[in-house]
Design a protein that fits this description.
Length: about 270
């Protein structure tokens, strides 16, 4: 009993900023872990930042989230590239386009007023969830498509532009959108789609972070510890996904998509009350 009392006393005497940073790092670890497998890390990390550091502005919250998550995304990308073969004739042009449009999205969110995208995103996520749940073999294995290298590259660029802009502008669910469209339009399996989505997501994060750095929106005393935690989570999550395979990643994708729907749906309802 005395040990419990001493523990509670120690927690009570920890200053709030330090305790908040520890909690943020725990959420960053979980975000990196989930994001490495199915995307959606922003579902965990961004609300945690908004809750634990409510005094910060939207641009600061988005900047810290991007600066920390980019490290986990890089770690996960590296892990996938060591195992999954990626056709760079397809991925490279899309990576450049994703970078450009993400930077544009970051500029819009800082220069113009914020638009409420959540109702539209909830509708799209519901459609993605139902389609993935209904198609039992969706993403189970790579499908032979009618596209050759050049048309596939063009289609991948077509995916990268709007989702890249969305990631710079808002963000949550970007990895999931990339993964879904790469499977649906290009015939990739879940592991290959996740690997390519990580490359694209890393590119979009780079653009957004570069712009936020130029605008001095990142608070590094918060972002750097969170980045370390996010890297650890991303490393463990990507290794687990590669070990468990497509079926496991599909299940995680469905769970994360459902949670995104629940979180954004709740925000939409709460905002109307």
């Amino acid at each position: 009993m005395s040990a419990i009392i001493r523990l509670v006393y120690k927690i009570d005497t920890v200053d709030a900023p330090s305790l908040n940073l520890v909690l943020l790092c725990l959420f960053a670890f979980l975000a990196g872990f989930i994001d490495a497998m199915a995307g959606g890390g922003g579902l965990i990390q961004l609300p945690a930042l908004a809750t634990l550091r409510p005094e910060l502005g939207l641009s600061n919250l988005l900047a810290i989230n991007k600066a920390s998550s980019i490290c986990g995304t890089f770690t996960a990308t590296w892990s996938y590239l060591r195992t999954i073969r990626v056709d760079w004739r397809v991925a490279a042009p899309a990576t450049v386009v994703a970078f450009i449009f993400s930077g544009l999205g970051a500029w819009v969110i800082l220069e113009l007023s914020s638009f409420d995208l959540k109702p539209l995103i909830v509708i799209i996520l519901v459609m993605v969830f139902i389609y993935t749940l209904y198609k039992k073999n969706f993403g189970e294995k790579t499908q032979i498509t009618r596209f050759q290298s050049k048309p596939i590259a063009t289609a991948c660029v077509g995916i990268a532009a709007p989702i890249g802009f969305y990631d710079g502008f808002f963000g949550p669910g970007t990895g999931g959108f990339f993964t879904f469209l790469l499977i649906r339009l290009l015939g990739y399996d879940f592991l290959k789609a996740t690997a390519v989505s990580k490359i694209l997501n890393f590119s979009t994060n780079c653009a957004a972070v570069a712009y936020f750095v130029l605008r001095k929106q990142i608070i590094f005393s918060i972002a750097l510890p969170m980045a370390a935690a996010n890297v650890t989570g991303g490393l463990i999550g990507s290794r687990l996904a590669l070990t468990k395979g497509n079926l496991f990643v599909r299940k995680i994708f469905l769970v994360v998509t459902f949670l995104l729907i629940a979180k954004m749906g709740y925000d939409v309802v709460a905002a109307t009350l």
